[in-house]
Amino acid sequence: VPASAPSCGRKPVLLVSRLYQPSNLRDVAQDSRLPGEMSCKSQRLMQQAGLIHPSSPGCYYYLPATIRSMEKLVRVIDQEMQGIGGQKLDMPSLCSADLWKTSERWDLMGKELFRLKDRHGADYCLGPTHEEAVTTLVAHQATLSYRQLPLLLYQITRKFRDEPKPKFGLLRGREFYMKDMYSFDVSEEAAHQTYESVCQAYTRLFTRLGLRCVQVQADTGNIGGKLSHEFQLPADIGEDRLLVCGSCSFSANVETMSSDQSNCPQCETGKLVESKGIEVGHTFYLGKKYSHIFKATFSNAQNKPAVAEMGCYGLGVTRILAAAVEVMSTEEGIRWPGLIAPYQVCVLPPKKGSKVDEATLLAEELVQALGETLPQLRGEVVLDDRTQMTIGKRLKDASKLGYPYVIVVGQGALEETPRFEVICQQTGETVFLSRDGLLDLL
Ligand code: ATP
Ligand code: MG
Ligand code: MG
Ligand code: MG
């Protein structure tokens, strides 16, 4: 059954009664796999609003509203990545162990790597990241010229990591979506420029989403390399400890400091202030580590083969969704960055039974008109047709899911100069607007 139903012989209207948003709040409380400290606000709110459903530890069903939100996020990420020359591809998740043995990460990754065998007994893993895969791909191109560099390849795919403690819903899954980009450059200098342009694109992305994000110096972990930054969203439940200088631009993950120091290592006078963050992105300058091992070379200006300089850049796509919900929401309801809210507007007709059939028709007509007049709202307006419920109850539900705008079509809408009650959920403000005022606002 489609989520929309024919209405008044006109185009179908999205009806809340038909949307698949099964609330499974009870599972959060009763799920024996989830001790109290393993769940958090975003997980609770997302399960309660029917956005995600737990499957096994660290694995979730992403329900339709989450997919809408994720597709919007992916669109913004694509714009930013392609804006700096990124080209999108898709690499296999089933990765041959040979590549991982060549880079020695087959052993280094330890238990975090999901390993499996095929019917012939050959070893595979489920890709947790793709440095090996992309480097061997580029190495296979015999004719790569310096004129084709920088080459920036990225994908947005599921990654698999057998996390020791999957927790906090989509914030730390064992199966999750990541955007991973890999760059190939002619020289160290060019690679640093590429690195810088990716960091700027990340900063633009978070600015567009309206999320405050800090870029901190970071450890390179088992990915290896020389220069690295993390993009962190400040939040109390964050698992990373950050040190930010009160006087200069210095900021770093505690992991990078040899001892915890209280004075800034950059300006030497400023005091370091500690806070917590959720790591939503990570950039690495890799140098020739992988390109050397896998022989990813290009022909240089002298027509001689040279080993490419590499970088790799991750964004936690599903983690960004949950982190945005975590930092923006109230305890009672989800608040989204406007750009990635699953739906933009919810229209509420009055409760059945009062003398309001006219208002119900008006509400349906409004949903149609919004989509037709404002192209950006096409497919973004839902009608809460559960008119057996009071407006108050439905408003509460709307507040849980976090539509940026909720429009109540009540008695006022039937008057000679119609007035619509509009609740802007981001600010919590309620305003009464004429029809034109409504169109202006949206
Ligand atoms: P963490 O320190 O949180 O374990 P990481 O440093 O291991 O993350 P990276 O290898 O840097 O992660 O991966 C790039 C990005 O992928 C991270 O910045 C994060 O946003 C996201 N990510 C990593 N692990 C997970 C996970 N288990 N669930 C969801 N997103 C993840
Ligand atoms: Mg990790
Ligand atoms: Mg980390
Ligand atoms: Mg990291």
Automatic annotation (TrEMBL):
Its EC number is 6.1.1.15. Residues 71-337 form the Aminoacyl-transfer RNA synthetases class-II family profile domain. GO terms for cellular component: mitochondrial matrix. Keywords: Aminoacyl-tRNA synthetase, ATP-binding, Ligase, Mitochondrion, Nucleotide-binding, Protein biosynthesis, Transit peptide. It is found in: Mitochondrion matrix. Transmembrane segments: none annotated. It is an enzyme of class 6 (ligase). Its main location: mitochondrion. GO terms for molecular function: ATP binding; proline-tRNA ligase activity. It catalyses: tRNA(Pro) + L-proline + ATP = L-prolyl-tRNA(Pro) + AMP + diphosphate. GO terms for biological process: prolyl-tRNA aminoacylation. Mitochondrial aminoacyl-tRNA synthetase that catalyzes the specific attachment of the proline amino acid (aa) to the homologous transfer RNA (tRNA), further participating in protein synthesis. The reaction occurs in a two steps: proline is first activated by ATP to form Pro-AMP and then transferred to the acceptor end of tRNA(Pro). Belongs to the class-II aminoacyl-tRNA synthetase family. This is Probable proline--tRNA ligase, mitochondrial. The gene is PARS2.
